[in-house]
Design brief:
346 residues; alpha/beta; 14 helices; 7-stranded parallel β-sheet; 39% helix; 6-stranded parallel β-sheet
């Protein structure tokens, strides 16, 4: 039997959970995997939590200068690693470097996309990908403007966060395991904005959540999962506010909490899938993948502080009923396309 060699690149913390079941499946099938991961946020900690062997390559840049320099350096290092391997196919989610290296080395690549507003990333990657898996709510014409070949686009019903729960085991004791001291009967989980991301113009020493926290801390326990130290410092020392230090079982936390308020994207969509009431106050333009859950009644969105507070208080007393939505099997779509790509090359 001939086993395949597959390269997977992980460039952001949520991608660890996205790919963990794909990695396990391929390993169980006997395939030879090369998993690379950059140093950014909690990526390395999560890789260890899920027992994934990986090669650390490169890091994240903050300024435009740093982003360009670090990405260029990372591409250079990845070329040295991958060029010495006989890779059959490459797989990534919003990695800047993998499609460029794979294209340059003649390796067919499968790309998972869920952010049509990541202008720089999409322009640099989509024209080079052999296949692009994307939610069908994202307008194909927008992707074509970035240079994506419409024949490479594979749409599905749902969002990428579906992958996070393929092997999810809920821990009802997650509050106790974290030794949380909760004085209010209701608990809200909050996630600040991705202020270091290239697609969002934001100050990493401030957060749109601050006035929301100030008002709601007297009505509920507030758990905050910051992305980096500067965000943690914003909320340090506030009564009834607990700063969580990753890695933590965010999926169980989301399910256990009474409400999620997020200024980002991934955790909000995870809450929608788990049917925990969720309010998005993401400061950028509404993503299509968020609109998918808004349309299905599983997410409320507002950038008005008073509206967010009013809706939060309402959700704490009147959570929405379970809403059934039909989604595709994204895991199987990825596996089927990966093997087909290895077989046919396009």
């Amino acid at each position: 039997m001939v086993f395949l060699k597959i390269w997977i690149d992980i460039s952001n913390a949520p991608h660890v959970r996205f790919f963990k079941d794909v990695i396990k499946y391929l390993e169980d099938e006997g395939e030879d995997l090369i998993v690379t991961a950059r140093q950014f946020g909690d990526i390395h900690k999560l890789m260890e939590v899920y027992d994934i062997d990986f090669i650390s390559v490169g890091k994240h840049g903050v300024s435009l200068y740093d982003k360009l320099k670090e990405s260029t350096s990372r591409t250079y290092d990845l070329v040295d690693i991958i060029s010495n391997e006989r890779v059959d196919a490459a797989l990534s989610k919003h990695s800047i470097e993998l499609p460029r290296v794979a294209f340059g080395l003649g390796i067919p690549s499968l790309y998972v996309l869920d952010n049509e507003h990541a202008l720089a990333a999409n322009k640099l990657t989509l024209p080079l990908c052999d296949r692009i898996i994307t939610p069908n709510i994202i307008d194909m014409w927008k992707l074509m403007k970035f240079g994506a070949d419409p024949n490479t686009i594979i749409p599905y019903n749902g969002t990428s966060e579906l992958m996070h729960f393929k092997s999810f085991n809920y821990n009802d004791d997650v509050f106790k395991d974290l030794n949380l001291k909760l004085e209010h009967p209701k608990t809200i989980l909050m996630r600040p904005e991705p202020s270091l991301a290239s697609y969002l113009d934001a100050d990493c020493t401030k957060s749109v959540l601050s006035p929301i926290v100030d008002d709601l801390k007297d009505h509920a326990n507030i758990l905050i999962l910051p992305r980096f130290k500067e965000q943690a410092d914003i909320f340090e020392g506030i009564d009834h506010v607990t700063i969580l230090h990753p890695p933590v079982d965010t999926s169980s936390l989301i399910k256990k909490c009474d409400l999620v308020i997020g200024a980002g994207g991934t955790m909000n969509r995870e809450a929608a899938i788990l049917q925990t009431p969720v309010i998005s106050c993401y400061p950028g333009e509404t993503l299509s993948v968020d609109q998918y859950y808004i349309n299905n009644g599983l997410m409320y969105r507002s950038n008005n502080v008073n509206q967010v507070i009013t809706k939060a208080l309402d959700f704490l007393q009147n959570p929405h009923e379970k809403i059934d939505i039909k989604t595709d099997d994204l895991f199987q779509i990825i596996i089927d396309n990966l093997y087909d790509l290895c077989k046919n090359g396009k």
